[in-house]
Design brief:
heterodimer, A: 320 residues, mainly alpha, two-stranded antiparallel ribbon, 14 helices, B: 402 residues, Rossmann fold, 44% helix, 15% strand
Chain lengths: 320, 402
């Protein structure tokens, strides 16, 4: 894809995102806000799995950690909600980094299993610290209203908050991945020994990548607590972690825009499946999954890239 | 003369107009249809309850085939929330904002309903007969749009406490409960009911996680504590284990089994009828697997309905009887609404049920609600298992009167 085509694509997506609230109902907007939240989480997971090659089946745990950080800070200490989102990110950065250190000893499937354990454990851990988390009753929050007397509904305001965070984090990820650091991260995935020989501190980079990835997912979790205005252990079961993994694979591994496509998929396809068949929605979902994987083995982002490259080639050929 | 007739007709029309526009103004209500929304876990960890959502649909099908309610057919829209609160929020917003249902009925689960509790009351959409036994749904002052249906767990706990205080003044109680809000509500009910005696009487409390494989060691601990009363707050899977294990190790306490696991089909038979002898529970519905109801008209009608409208549903699953009964309660509410199906009137009529008896509730149990009482079923009766059936004894316990 040429840089120009990419710039046009990004600008178009941003324009659509900005005018969307004018055209859709509050309910639809709420769904798109969830897409934004998922996209942030998926980008985090994609940095780890897509770019760095570490498979995580436990990112739902960081999502939960972020959500609970936000919920507890608002509920207990009346902290302004923007601060709680930052706190969710920082806390998950530290937690992810620390988890990344022992995870260094684990490769591939073994790491997947270790993270899977994290996903399994988190609902019970949340119930155990009942004093803080409210146990299985969870914590009920209020949706923040738009500040400064802006004429926006709470749904519209949260949409824009999510959009701003999303854009900021996407730009950050792009800058991180496009430079030296990004090359090191990818080199570790492609050939850890060669990367080490070139002077990349693989241990540090892997742990850091884990931390950054968890931070993204934690921010997403914090935002989700605001959007849903409720947290409870049942919201963060193993299935969430698997859904996130599905999102990055369908969206496109090692692709920034893939996070957005993946988020659209995990938000809307289960609903479509239910509309098609009430009796067996997950069978329909499965069919969708297989179709997507068969038709677009590199995810939606990969397929788009391929299609654009073909159009581009044809264009050059015609001119020649 | 003619002018006068026209004039009076006009006046009559004007007087009727507000009532008519009211009906037309309520989302989800037309002259021929009333839209009702629901969420149920058709997938995920709690999918065993999904049968309730399907049975509700089957009951409304029967209602519609018989002509609907005041000429209106029920359009029942149910979505899967997989027992995940965020999904419930999304699906309920879809029902309210996009599908424009008139009311929300029987949404299932405590955490899932908690997630939409505030929203429903802000939107002022009836959120009635929720499928959970938590205590918080009876709060008309702060949440005037939400209402429960079944007796809550704390009430039942108090019934057992009452029984123990009266009959076993020197009881030593051992408790086993599931470590979540369901178990804790039951535990709290017993503690509250015992009052000052709780400290003296309760000799041991054991918990388990719903994901545990077995509770054998808890039973052994409870036996060794010297307890002579066993308060068993477990779901069927663990109730079977508890009854079996207590029997196997020769522990013979007064065994109080919570209503959640009182089914012959899913608990007592798998545990062994001999081992189950002497169990005491509190009931509000007829246990459909209990042979004493075999010739009961209410039971037979239910079986006939199951066979005709919900053939794929299990005849030994109490949840299907539960759904049948709660759907009948809603039909009564809608009938009471007459032609005014405004949301205000729907919740008002839900809170104006007077001595409603249903075919599958125990004889004598009546549903009563009022503007200050959002707990439809508050009566239960103790029953003892004689090796074959639940034998009701004592009088109906009425939580509203205590």
């Amino acid at each position: 894809m040429t840089p120009r085509a990419r710039a046009v694509g990004v600008a178009a997506a941003l324009a659509v995102a900005l005018v969307l609230p004018l055209f859709v109902s509050n309910f639809r907007l709420f769904q798109f806000t969830q897409v934004g939240v998922y996209a942030i989480a998926l980008l985090g997971l994609n940095v780890l799995t897509g770019y760095n090659g570490q498979i995580s089946l436990g990112h739902g745990a960081f999502y939960a950690l972020g959500a609970y950080t936000t919920a507890i800070m608002i509920d207990r200490w009346d902290v302004p909600y923007p601060l709680t989102i930052v706190a969710a990110g920082v806390l998950c950065l530290v937690a992810g980094f620390l988890f990344g250190i022992p995870a260094l000893r684990l490769e591939g499937l073994y790491l997947a299993l270790a993270t899977f354990a994290l996903a399994l454990a988190i609902p019970q851990i949340l119930k155990y610290f009942e004093h803080w988390t409210g146990g299985s009753q969870g914590i009920v929050l209020s949706k923040p209203n738009a500040p400064w007397g802006l004429p926006l509904s709470p749904d519209q305001w949260l949409y824009f908050v999510t959009l701003v965070v999303l854009v900021a984090l996407f730009v950050l990820a792009r800058n991180l991945l496009a430079g030296r650091t990004g090359r090191a991260i990818v080199a570790i995935r492609d050939n850890p020994i060669a990367a080490q020989a070139m002077g990349v501190n693989t241990a540090l980079y892997k742990s850091l990548t884990f931390g950054v990835s968890a931070a993204y997912t934690g921010v997403a979790g914090g935002l989700s607590a605001l959007v849903i205005a409720f947290v409870a252990p049942d919201a963060f079961n193993v299935f969430l972690s698997i859904t996130l993994l599905v999102g990055i694979v369908i969206g496109g591994l090692a692709s920034i825009s893939g996070a957005l496509f993946g988020a659209l998929f995990i938000q809307f396809v289960p609903n479509w499946a239910q509309d098609i068949s009430k009796a067996a929605p997950w069978a329909i979902y499965g069919v969708f999954l297989i179709l997507f994987m068969y038709v677009m083995p590199r995810g939606i982002a990969g397929a788009l890239r391929l299609a654009l490259a073909r159009v581009g080639r044809r264009g050059t050929a015609a001119r020649a | 003369m003619l002018t006068r007739t026209i004039l009076s007709a006009l006046i009559a029309a004007l007087a009727l107009a507000p009532a008519m526009t009211m009906a037309a103004d309520t989302p989800g209500v037309t002259a021929t249809e009333i839209k009702i929304g629901n969420t149920n876990p058709y997938s995920g960890p709690a999918s065993a309850y999904g049968t309730i959502g399907k049975a509700l649909g089957a009951y409304f099908k029967k209602v519609n085939e018989e002509g609907g309610i005041s000429g209106r057919k029920i359009n029942y829209i149910t979505y899967d929330d997989a027992y995940s609160p965020p999904k419930t929020v999304e699906m309920v917003r879809k029902l309210v904002e996009q599908d424009q249902v008139a009311l929300l009925f029987q949404t299932l689960g405590t955490p899932t309903n908690t997630a939409i509790h505030k929203y429903m009351n802000q939107q002022k959409v009836p959120h009635i007969f929720v499928a959970t036994g938590a205590t918080k749904w009876n709060d008309p002052r702060n949440h005037p749009w939400t209402m429960g249906w079944q007796p809550n767990y704390q009430t039942e706990g108090r019934i057992y406490a009452n029984y123990v205080l009266k009959n076993l003044p020197d009881a030593k109680i051992g408790i086993l409960y599931q470590n979540d809000d369901y178990g804790k509500d039951y535990r709290k009910g017993l503690h509250d009911g015992l009052g000052d005696a709780a400290k003296k009487m309760i000799v041991m409390e054991q918990t388990y996680e719903v994901t545990d494989p077995t509770i054998d060691s808890q039973i052994v601990n409870l036996k060794n504590s010297g307890a002579n009363v066993f308060y068993n707050v477990t779901i069927p899977k663990f109730a079977v284990q508890a009854i079996k294990k207590a029997h196997d190790i020769g522990w013979k306490p007064l065994h109080l089994l919570n209503n959640v696991s009182s089914s012959l089909g899913t608990t007592l038979k798998p545990a062994g009828l001999e081992a189950s002898k002497g169990l005491i529970t509190a009931l509000y519905m007829k246990e459909i697997t209990d042979p004493q109801w075999k010739n009961d008209k209410g039971y037979q009608d239910w079986v006939a309905w199951m066979k005709k409208y919900y053939a794929e549903g299990a005849l030994d699953d109490q949840a299907n009887a539960y759904a049948y009964s709660v759907a009948q309660t809603l039909v009564q509410v809608l009938k009471q609404c007459g032609n005014d199906l405004s949301r205000e009137n729907i919740i008002k009529q839900a809170a104006s049920l007077k001595n409603l008896e249903l075919p599958l509730l125990l004889p004598g149990i009546k549903i009563n609600t009022s503007a200050t009482d959002f707990a439809p079923i508050e009566q239960e009766q103790l029953a003892k298992f004689d090796g074959e059936r639940w034998v009701l004894f004592g009088e109906l316990y009425d939580a509203a009167k205590k």
